[in-house]
Amino acid sequence: MTVTAAQGFTAAGIAAGIKANGNPDLALVVNNGPRLAAAGVFTSNRVKAAPVHWSEQVLRGGTVSAVVLNSGGANACTGPKGFQDTHATAEKVASTLAAHGLGEHNAGEVAVASTGLIGVLLPMDKLLPGIETAAAALSEDGGEAAAVAIKTTDTVHKTAAVSQGGWTVGGMAKGAGMLAPGLATMLVVLTTDADVDAPALDEALRSATRTTFDRVDSDGCMSTNDTVLLLASGASGRTPAQADFAEAVRTVCDDLARQLIGDAEGASKDIRIEVIGAASEDDAVEVGRSIARNNLLKCAIHGEDPNWGRVLSAIGTTKAAFDPDRLNVAINGVWVCKNGSVGEDRDLVSMKDREVRITADLSTGGESAVIWANDLTADYVHENSAYSS
User: Fold this and answer.
1) What are the backbone dihedrals phi and psi of residue 170, each rounded to the nearest 5 degrees, phi first?
2) Which helix (H) or strand (E) holds 10?
3) Half-sphere exposure of 134 toward its Cβ, with a 13 Å CA cutoff?
4) Angle between the 50-59 and 79-99 helix axes, to the nearest 10 degrees?
5) Residue 308: which of 280, 285, 278, 339 has the closest Cα?
6) Which residues contact 282 (CB under 8 A, 6 or more apart)?
7) Positive/negative CA dihedral, 18, 110, 112, 246
8) Taking Cα atoms as reference points, which of 281, 353, 343, 355 lies closest to residue 312?
9) Cβ(64)–Cβ(231) under 8 Å?
10) 318 is known as an active-site residue
11) Of 20, 91, 165, 225, which has the highest C-beta tally within 10 A?
């Protein structure tokens, strides 16, 4: 159920000393081929971390032989030195893998990802030797250790895999805060042993992220470091139909995205917001995001108050097509608002479970979208005020 579920991949996760607490903080994932195809999507934040700039360049070639990821520091807003450190990290991975007899590697084919505090340079005196340690620990069973090593405020590591027809898609993710993506989200590495070229990977990945990671909106904050990579080894020798492959990638992404929401910082409720009856998918997404980012509603959900008026208020801030007198809202299956007014008795709504389901019917068309969010809690405020994260 990890990045090493697919044939042709090895991984490792170690403690390099980047984190002061001594927890694992460096992960390495290596594609041993025979194919080294890759695709990636990245944050749309205009302030991008050095590893994002580097990896965007690497992915233009459609080939990635290894990915090195660190937690304990984002290497964002670190100027030219930060980019030099990213370059040095890729160079170190390439030379170290070659020295360990793991084939020839080019730094220009090594993707780099970082997560942690923004505005702090990485301790390269610890990171670079850590790469040597990680290379020595590479294993076909190393996927779980790699997933643990990329955690920051995550309480659990996140992995998923799907197998069918003799080929597999596996993956790992980190993320518990700053969950409001634009195109991609958090740090995610996906692997497959299907024999698929870079254009097909790119098509499948962009389709999958659009309806999974891009529909996660926990706290309305977009990271500078969001990275999602999909690597193909071709080790299974199987080339699936594109539709089947794309669905497998989407399934793994959906699983990981749901795990991210379930581990969001301080959250006590996971909110599934489904917008139906929209004139367009864009309208449905816009409305869903507006509802997801309404702090008054998020507080009400935390207090188990089915305050549907706050849902209508959020809808009303959008440019979506709708008639206010035809809006309907259900909370956990109870239609508390009908035709823009009072519906079923709100006392019928039970909100004791972790998952809360909100359905907003715009009564305008046939399009829909689902956005996942969380409630707003005192624990979230404490976690993001008591220390830097």
Assistant:
1) -125, 170
2) strand 9-14
3) 36
4) 50
5) 339
6) none
7) negative
8) 343
9) yes
10) no
11) 225
Which of 153, 185, 224, 377 is the catalytic position? 185
Token readout for 348 is 């019928």
Question: Which residues are within 8 A (CB) of 85 and not within 5 positions of it... i.e. 6 or more apart?
Answer: 50, 75, 78, 121, 122, 124, 127
Distance CA 213, CA 250 (A): 10
For residue range 249-263, list pLDDT tens digits in order.
999 999 999 999 888
Q: 34 or 220: whose pLDDT is higher?
A: 34
Which of 8, 1, 4 shows the shortest CA–CA distance to 161? 1
Q: Is the peptide bond before 34 cis (omega within 30 degrees of 0)?
A: yes
d(CA 171, CA 235): 16
Q: Is the pLDDT of residue 242 over 60?
A: yes
How much is the pLDDT for 381?
Answer: 82
Tokens 């080019």, located at residue: 106
Strand pairing category for 158-164 and 334-338:
unpaired
285 Cα distance to chain centroid? 18
Tens-place pLDDT, residues 168-226:
999 999 987 655 655 445 899 999 999 999 999 999 999 999 999 989 887 777 788 88
281: Cβ contacts below 8 Å, ≥ 6 apart: 367, 368, 369
The one-letter code for the residue type at 8 is G
Residues 332-340, mean pLDDT to the nearest whole number: 98
The pLDDT assigned to 39 comes to 98
Is residue 70 a contact partner of residue 12, using CB atoms and an 8 Å limit?
Answer: no
Please report, for residues 2, 152, 162, 207, 217, the alpha-carbon distance to residue 114 in angstroms, rounded to integers and kept in the order given: 19, 11, 26, 24, 21
* Residue that the structure tokens 């980012």 belong to: 293
Q: Which of 147, 221, 248 is nearest to 373 (CA)?
A: 221
Residues 6 or more apart whose Cβ sits within 8 Å of residue 103:
32, 33, 65, 97
Residue range 319-337: average pLDDT? 98
For the chain, helix (H) and strand (E) counts, in that order, are: 10, 15
Coil, strand or helix at 126:
helix
The residue assigned the tokens 């997933």 is: 147
Query: How many of the other CB atoms lie within 10 Å of CB of 258?
Result: 17
